[in-house]
């Protein structure tokens, strides 16, 4: 990365291994672990298959983490995969990655998480109801004022957390430490209380839905159902690679970044498997299918309220508020570094290439990110955008894992502080999975997949303009 102009501050290497692990956990655990067991149950109709889907998604994510870690150990810098792709492939592919993150992947994630926070707060402290006349206002096919009070609280959260992270990296890091410790403590408390309660039964784990048909759930049908369920689980794991965006602010990133990726992913896997085992231990799978079909309810709230009563509902609602607040804050912190790295390389808006001289944060990147994310919240399209998110994200995840093979060929003698365990099998499995997921999404969900590719393509005129000017 280029040197910082004299009238600016500079990114400071202040993040150690523990802080990096905390940032990974806080950037991943948001809404998926509390909600996705319901759609997965509807797709698979079997508790054991639901747990298998979570395990497969965790192992695949771990394979991607291990592959990403080797590349990160060689090329760690602010911007993460943007920097990796520029060196492994070319500037154009790096730009596509960065632009897609700005257009949808990171910003839609922040919008979605902030909206869930606002919805959860609304369930505890009801907001004013939007009038029908205001909700029906149509702008380009969108209804920006529908459910306005929830949207305004989500936008207020985005603005508050943006300002908080603008004031310094340490503030955001310390907030994540406190909230992550609180979040893990409450999750462990729920797991222990559930296993000790009289409400659960191993029979719930071994009993399939009344709709389950063993003859139908086999072969290609089983594969498609597992693939669909794994897509839901991957939303729960989404975000593990984004800690690479702060590679330029980590101490000894060549060593600490790969270690943080591996440790953080393993902790998340353990928490997810335990939480989902508890869900399926407490309630029969048909209850989760009903929650999914009702489109009104959060699986985790139903489970904890069932065995702990009304105060359990308050406990789990508080946990969801903490998790979404924490995840939104960390994603805002991390993603802004990517957009700064793009601007620093003349592939984003010129004014964003700026580090605040006092707080040493990419302040303008934070603000432009907040503006676009708030517009996504008002548009109400972020749920549709997150459907495209996994498809788009795995194009780039696969490209990073394939980069292991490219770099081994292009730079065979280069120093590698970490080498992926099980090479070449582990990265090959992950790349193969990414290809299968991308092809399957194109076949099964062509509208979402093609829309995702269309969003990526919106960056082409910007790329032409910025490249021409450079």
From TrEMBL:
Keywords: Membrane, Transmembrane, Transmembrane helix. It holds the Pfam family AA_permease_2. It is a multi-pass membrane protein. Coiled coil: none annotated. GO terms for cellular component: membrane. The chain crosses the membrane at residues 12-34, 49-71, 92-117, 148-166, 178-197, 217-237, 257-282, 388-408, 420-443, 449-466. It is found in: Membrane. It comes from the Bacteria. One of its GO terms (molecular function) is L-amino acid transmembrane transporter activity. Its main location: membrane. This is APA family basic amino acid/polyamine antiporter.
